[in-house]
Amino acid sequence: MKFEIETDDDKYDDISQCLKILYSTNVGTSALNRDFGLDTNFLDMPIQTAKNLMTAEIIKKTIKYEPRANIQKILWEKDFNGQLKAKVIIKCL
Known about the structure:
It contains 2 helices and 3 strands; from the N terminus they run E-H-H-E-E. The protein has helices at 13-24, 47-65, and strands spanning 2-6, 69-78, 84-92. The protein has a 3-stranded mixed β-sheet, covered by helices on one side. The chain is α+β, with helices and mostly antiparallel strands. Helices cover 33% and strands 26% of the residues.
């Protein structure tokens, strides 16, 4: 799974960096906070189910761990290998 973060202003690079870390961490792998990161267990499900569950996971974890970011939209793309890529568009508070 790949992620791209788009913010409404370049001065919010720290928020974008925090989200990149959150989205690239698998849940259960952070020693001091086992809930940090995204649950990716559903990625082998049918594509629409996986996208829906991942969208819900991204929204839930963003609200919990980066309250300065407000998700405006999540767009999904597939590359030529069939790998999903989420483009998360946020508005910084």
